[in-house]
Amino acid sequence: MLLRNLRFSCRRYSQAVTFRTIESSPKQHNEKQIGLFYTLDKDVCKQLFGHGGLPKSFTKQTKTFTETALMVRQPALDIMDCIKASDFDKPAIRYVLYGEKGAGKSLTMAHLLHYAHSEGFLIVHVPWVSEWLRRVPRHKEMSNSTSQEGFVDIPLDAAAWLLHFKMQNQNILKSSDLRISKDYEWSSREKSSAGAPLAELVELGINRVKYACDIINVLMNEIKMLSSNKFCKTFVAIDGFNSFLYPLTRLKTPTKRKVTPEEVSLTKPFMEITKNDWSNGVIVVTADQIAVPDDHQESYLPKYLLCKKGFEHLDPFVPVEVGRYTEREYLSCASYYRDRLWMRGPPELETELKLASACNPYRFMEMCAPL
Q1: Which of 151, 198, 296, 311 is the most exposed place for a label (fewest CB within 10 A)?
Q2: pLDDT at 237
Q3: What are phi and psi for residue 22, nearest 5 degrees?
């Protein structure tokens, strides 16, 4: 009885603010839905984010809530509007999401990925660059590249990414139009012939891990050509892009020498595909303070985080700031948390949490967890 009364009390508070929208298609989202949550279909969520793409703390929360719900926010709508108005015959436009820690850049990216999926884009998505360059578990395999002198390969990470790419694009890769343009020789016995399906190239990289890094390099070049020739339209999304530009990684050679990002063979193809020398595509990256290990970041602005090299590489680009919750967004999120019993207590608690969290989405989520 006590639990039933508590549920009723919490939901009575949440009914004061509308926090959900029944419009589940991101193609139909507009300013009327700003601040409202929509629920992702479980199958679509598994396809897009089954191998990464959602922050770990958010993924843990979705298991607790038994649903994956994203808030419709202005930055995502702004980029969607720009994409709809873009001339895809021109070079790919680049967008840089930026903002303070915990503002919601990765979830804005997730919303955009869902939009790209619903619009039929071929998706090239790197969930978190630092997983390759900064996080070094004991089992991480690293070897000298046999095809590029002076480079190192991280083949297991490359094969895992190809599996992620295959999962996200499982329907598009069945298209007979997506074929490779020329012959590629991997060894005296293994070759990929011109005209072979792109899916066959991806499968080779998954099954023959030692070639995975080289296959990703070829795959990016083929995708740029296929996209420019109108065989597909491509959506590139890289979270923590500035990690590619930080001077050092946590990878080390057998002689204990630290490896720079430029010496990692996986860096090159993703730097190449973020150039605007191809068309019929969209490029969205995030510049994030937590993508690099320096705890004394002076600014979250793109010019600071991307450094001179990264800024010049992406220039010109469209900067899009992801800010703290607005009043409407905060009230909507508080109502959602009450509905999920993530937050309990009297209404006055919301005012206190608003001040304590400063409307930072991540901080608000963390503070509600133990309540």
Answers
A1: 296
A2: 98
A3: -85, -5
Nearest CA-CA partner of 71 in 313, 352, 337: 337
The predicted model gives 52-63 an average pLDDT of: 94
| pLDDT band, residue 18 (cuts 50/70/90) | confident
